[in-house]
Amino acid sequence: MARDLKVLIIGGGIGGLSAAIAIRFAGHSVTILEAEEEITEVGAGLQFSANATRILIKWGVDKLIVKDVHHLETNGAPFWDIHRHDLIKALHSMALELGAEVRVQSRVSDLDFGTGSVVLQNGEVLQGDLVIGADGLNSTCRKKLIPDDEEPEFTGDMAFRVLLNLEDLPPNDPDFLEITTRPQCTYWLGPSHHAIVYILRGGTQINLVAVVPDDLPRGVVRAPCDTGGVLKLFEGFDPLLLEIISQVPQTFKWKLRIRPELKKWSHDSGKFTLLGDAAHPTLPYLSQGAGITLEDAAVLGQLLTEPIPLAKVLAKYESIRRPRTTSVVKASSQQQYWYNLPDRPEQRERDRIMSAEIPQEEDPFLWKDPVFAPWLFGYDAHEEARKVVGKYPL
Description:
GO molecular function: FAD binding; monooxygenase activity
Helix content: 25-40%
Family: Belongs to the paxM FAD-dependent monooxygenase family.
Protein name: Related to salicylate hydroxylase
Number of helices: 13
Pfam families: FAD_binding_3 (PF01494)
Keywords: FAD, Flavoprotein, Monooxygenase, Oxidoreductase
Radius of gyration: 21 Å
């Protein structure tokens, strides 16, 4: 394997930028191809547990965003509540600082896995030693790799998001002051509905995500929604939750979708692989989608420091990452069931276990489970990759 690879990354989101950083640290040339006019991110809050933040700290990205996150030390690294825009901005800055080339308005129209060539919509052809598809849930790279791959599946849930600026809220409101001055993550669980609230940007913003049964038409993924309709869906819930929702006149609702597990992420040529949501999209109930994407990038970058053929690098990458991401995706889907239980004895037993002071094994709230939580949060992606250095896959 050449020591200075030319790597093309399709997609300039969290996955693409993270891969660029990891691969630049490995000493290879990187070009990111982003279809949109600029590197940006829609949405609001992200929660990053220790398995993700230890990667960002190792890369030095924490120094670019530390002022914008809420910290809580756990499992040997911080837990962060962070705005997506702030994360993307920091990752973009770090990728550029490390020497990655970032090209916008560079939509990919075709790939040749055998040669590692990429054709842009404007007809330009780029050649790489390795091409990485990091183009998200609706990945064109994935469809090219697996032509008969199934379309994203509907989960029966849809989500709303509300982002409030503290300066726009009623002054001296005791409930809002409680949320912003005593940082915490608050969950409301009810039949077929749940909501989560946490703060962003040093307590200057309140982020709410609410999940309800999907009522969007089959062909519609995202649509505007009057706040009155959301309030009606949460009728009878905690007045504080309703007060938060009522602060905005309109929000958007979007379908929560997932895709079936892939049997392979890479092409046999050793010149192409998938990363992040393009390979393993997950539901948001464990807040791990971005985290396991960072893990992918860190593992792949570490493996690319080893002077072995690319096909063997990618085989190692899949052997390390696929079992873990499969487990995380399944666990997140399991949380969907527990969060939305109807009022019945199983729900009361769930509440009893979740409210116990001492965590119990098989806790429905997996962040507390004494077996699952250390496995999830204690993961060190770079160390997992280093374990297989010198060990050749079959």
